[in-house]
């Protein structure tokens, strides 16, 4: 993780001379030659894998480094002949030109040409909700040289936008702001941090540090509030201690009403964390699971209950509205790429999350798609790994209830039907 020219630095030379006087440092040109050689070999291996795959999807993102330089990363995702899911970063390169849809499309075309990826293999481009990349995907979908590629908005980023709307409404936003100030006080004060550790020991509370959230990641806000609730009484004890906290800082503690609202926020967002994790795994397909999980989330977790507080009710209503709007759940879903994928996924192909009259149309769409394909060579079966039948790790078991809710598999009859079908 150091720059290559470190081998030319006098300090580094002195260090190596001290550690091993007999060692001769390679020149910068030698190191660069080795790096380029490794890159060329790796690229050739990857090109061979891509040539052998049936279809390929892309993920692209434009981001800014700490030096305020813009970079564009392009990642390829495909399934090999032995049914293993692969993800490879094709390129991370500085994007010095204006971030217009045309320039982004040109860069993507350059990457496709560089790795010799034909148009017929390009299935989808996953991207965030920025207007320029959305327009780029739309333009490429109409470009004959890009085949039948489709633009797919990143579920994680879209979910972030939905939750941001809910977090910005009163009184939720004020509670989050108050919690942020409270955590900031402990992060800035070494005296308060030491006192918190002492109170944790006295009250026999698990010794965890408070978490400061990051505005661009909603799950960090959920983690901040959850940790704060866990440490509520040690935190309150420190703030009320005149030997530790100045009078001007004692009002940083949340009120009883704010603590209750914080509990509501955590309870509403908790399954959202599990949903995001499930849909963000590199080794698991997520397109087919997106709509089933979102609809199950809406119908069950986001369903209003009698014991919901005002904040929880407002958050649930907002989240349902945002999910409906951003995924167009009130429109014609039967022909969407999400439903096509769900039909082909053994976990969801019964389409139990859809209205019965719409299922037949969804099946017909996929049936017609299958008929339009030329007969393909039967793919090789993936050999079972030795650890395929090992018991589920403990940390996964703890989330099983949330996963069952999202998957809709905790209804006994449906689970039995799916299990028997998979066994057959």
Could you explain how this protein is built, in words?
The protein has helices at 10-19, 28-52, 101-114, 131-141, 155-167, 172-188, 190-202, 218-230, 232-239, 256-278, 287-301, 310-327, 337-343, 356-372, 394-397, 400-407, 412-423, and strands spanning 56-64, 70-79, 85-94, 122-127, 150-153. With 424 residues, it is of the alpha/beta class. It folds into four domains: 9-41, no CATH class; 51-153, ATPase, nucleotide binding domain (Nucleotidyltransferase, domain 5); 162-272, no CATH class; 279-372 and 401-413, no CATH class. The chain has a five-stranded mixed β-sheet. The longest helix is centred in the N-terminal third of the chain and has 25 residues, at 28-52. The radius of gyration is 26 Å and the shape is flat. The model is unreliable at 384-388 (pLDDT under 50).
């Amino acid at each position: 993780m150091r720059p290559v020219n470190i081998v030319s630095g006098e300090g580094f030379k002195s260090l190596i001379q001290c550690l091993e006087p007999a060692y001769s440092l390679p020149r910068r040109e030698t190191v660069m030659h080795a790096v380029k050689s490794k890159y060329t070999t790796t690229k050739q291996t990857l090109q061979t894998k891509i040539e052998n795959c049936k279809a390929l999807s892309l993920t692209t993102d434009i981001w800014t480094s700490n030096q305020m330089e813009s970079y564009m990363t392009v990642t390829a995702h495909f399934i090999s002949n032995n049914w293993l899911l692969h993800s490879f970063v094709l390129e991370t390169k500085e994007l010095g030109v204006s971030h217009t849809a045309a320039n982004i499309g040109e860069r993507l075309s350059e990457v496709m040409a560089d790795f010799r990826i034909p148009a017929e293999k390009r299935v989808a481009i996953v991207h965030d909700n920025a207007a320029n990349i959305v327009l780029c995907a739309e333009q490429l979908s109409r470009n004959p040289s890009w085949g039948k590629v489709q633009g797919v908005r990143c579920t994680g980023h879209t979910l972030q936008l939905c939750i941001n709307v809910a977090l910005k409404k009163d009184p939720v936003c004020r509670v989050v702001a108050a919690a942020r100030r409270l955590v900031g006080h402990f992060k800035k004060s070494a005296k308060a941090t030491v006192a918190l550790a002492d109170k944790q020991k006295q009250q026999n509370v698990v010794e965890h540090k408070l978490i400061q959230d990051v505005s661009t990641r909603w799950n960090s806000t959920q983690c901040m509030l959850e940790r704060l609730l866990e440490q509520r009484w040690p935190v309150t004890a420190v703030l009320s201690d005149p030997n530790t906290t100045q009078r001007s800082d004692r009002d940083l503690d949340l009120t009883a009403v704010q603590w209750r609202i914080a509990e509501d926020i955590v309870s509403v967002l908790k399954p959202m964390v599990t949903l995001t994790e499930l849909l963000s795994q590199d080794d698991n397909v997520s397109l087919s699971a997106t709509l089933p999980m979102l609809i199950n989330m809406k119908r069950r977790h986001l369903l209003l209950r009698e014991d919901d507080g005002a904040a929880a009710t407002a958050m649930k209503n907002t989240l349902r509205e945002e999910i409906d709007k951003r995924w167009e759940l009130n429109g014609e879903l039967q022909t969407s790429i999400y439903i096509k994928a769900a039909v082909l996924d053994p976990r969801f192909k019964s389409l139990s999350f859809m209205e019965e009259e719409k299922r037949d149309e969804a099946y017909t769409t996929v049936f017609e798609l299958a008929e339009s394909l030329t007969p393909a060579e039967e793919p090789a079966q993936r050999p079972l790994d030795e650890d395929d039948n090992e018991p589920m790790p403990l940390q996964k078991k703890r989330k099983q209830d949330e996963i069952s809710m999202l998957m809709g598999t905790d209804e006994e009859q449906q689970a039995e039907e799916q299990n028997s079908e998979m066994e057959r």
